[in-house]
Amino acid sequence: MQADLIQEARRQAEICHACRYCEGYCSVFPALHRERFLTDGDITQLANLCHNCRGCYYACQYTAPHEFDLNLPKALAEVRRNSWESYAWPAPVARKFHTHGGAIAIASVLGFAAMFLAIRLIGSAGGDGFYAAFSHGAMVAIFLPAFFFPLASLAISLKKYWSSVGGTRIDLKSVARAFGMAAEMRDLSGGHGDGCNFEEEDRFSHARRHAHQAILYGFLLCFASTSAGTLMHYFLDMPAPYPLWSLPKLFGIPGGVLLTGGCAWMMSLKLRSDRTLGDGNAWGGDFGFIALLGFVALSGLALYVLGSTAAMPLLLALHLGSVLSFFLLTPFTKMAHGFYRLTALIRDAQQKQA
Q: Which of 46, 119, 230, 326 has its CA 20 to 30 A from that of 74?
């Protein structure tokens, strides 16, 4: 299966190599035109550079009904998903999530929420605020290993990817260039700067780029909120709950709003997009993960608003269940694509300097 996907992507890429009409569209085409012969590793690298903006498809003169029948966004999306499944550790979990992502996300959230409610019933509580429902010790015992698992899993996966694409020793200049590209999400603006064609067919739009930015910066603000709370708890002897004008709240509230809105926007765009220009086998998993990430943010905001009511224990269990699900599923979901694409951008920056 993997060989067939790579072979089809290579066939289409070789036609693109000869045509060169889309040379300035995104990072894929300059990388494609640098190579005279495309190895399997080259195809995998191109697939992970692709952001599925679909601009090349609508510009192409060789799409169906032409006999070449090019659909490069779909071909690269299938190779990309297959590469994530192949390099993921453990790999069988990734394959299951991509095909049954929505069901797995719902089941894991509800299952972990029930677990937290059961922990509360057996008496694991003590403290102020949320700790009145679940003790700090119980939360640490559960979330500390859950936090390190995805880091270890992704490290193993990315090492395999780096080896397969011929990555060399990483230099700071390449890393800085890659982070700059990722921060601006430059490839989602198209080579012409007018945006991409993800949800509007042949009409250019920056909507997907802005939705991604809302998700990215919302997530970073939420992470900063959690980090600030951790530092305040352990190093400044300032345990939760925190007042409105504290760092955890100043980071967390706008971060939650951005993350919730960005995920809702992204789901709307995916529902309006043409599924034949992406990997149909991964659509459910992608959508399920975006919904999960949005629910993490939304339940956190609801918990902030209703944290002093009788609904707090149930809301907290659902929120903690969604957060735990997010951590444990990260290496096998669309979240992993950010790490792969950043790694692909680092490799691309290396090749540009060579």
A: 326
